[in-house]
Amino acid sequence: MAFLNQSQRDIAGVLTNGIHVVKASATIPQTTTQHLFTVAGGRCLVLLLFGEVTTVIQGTDPVLKITSTPTVGTAVDVASTVDTSSLEVGGLLTVEGDGTALVKGNAGAGLFGSQVGRWIVPIGFIDLISGASKTGATKWDVFYVPLDDGAVFYTAAAEHIR
User: By three-state DSSP, how is residue 14 classified?
Assistant: First the structure.
């Protein structure tokens, strides 16, 4: 039986899934916008973007959505709102990238599959926007491939890049 070392696992992950960047857990924004990721240096192809609930979301809908906010041009909803009331710790929010509602699943549900789309994002921000002040927290993961030389995703604190 052959075992892979960490560097072999890392390169296999990048070749299969793209570059992985993690936004650490943060309280959901209170009727405002929270920058999840910054896109710099050029366009990127997003292969997967999802959030995980780390603190239970309050029992009434906080109307969360994900928006691509370019530095030049108009913001576009890549995932519109979905009722996230009482979403439990470990629950997932998946972005399909086509402007339809966030896809949600409770902890233990695996909803990723053929419906998850790939989408192109310009230089700017990927934002989490809330239309209400509610309790709860999420962490976010993005997997991407740069389309232009020098294109990267990062977080404000460059929390984790794999």
Answer: helix
Q: Give the C-alpha separation, 91 to 8, whole Å.
A: 30
C-alpha 145/C-alpha 19 separation (Å) is: 6
Exposure string over 6-33, b if 16+ CB within 10 A, otherwise e = eeeeeeeeeeeebbbbebeebebbeeee
Nearest to 158 by CA among 10, 24, 44, 14: 24
Residues 6+ apart with CB under 8 A from 4: 12
The Cα–Cα gap between 71 and 75 comes to 9
Could you give the CA distance from residue 44 to residue 42 in angstroms, rounded to a whole number? 7
Q: N- to C-terminal Cα distance for the chain? A: 27
Determine which of 63-67, 70-74, 132-136, 151-155 has the lowest per-residue pLDDT on average: 132-136
Q: What is the pLDDT of residues 7-43, one digit of tens each?
A: 777 776 677 788 999 999 999 888 889 999 999 999 9
Distance CA 160, CA 59 (A): 31
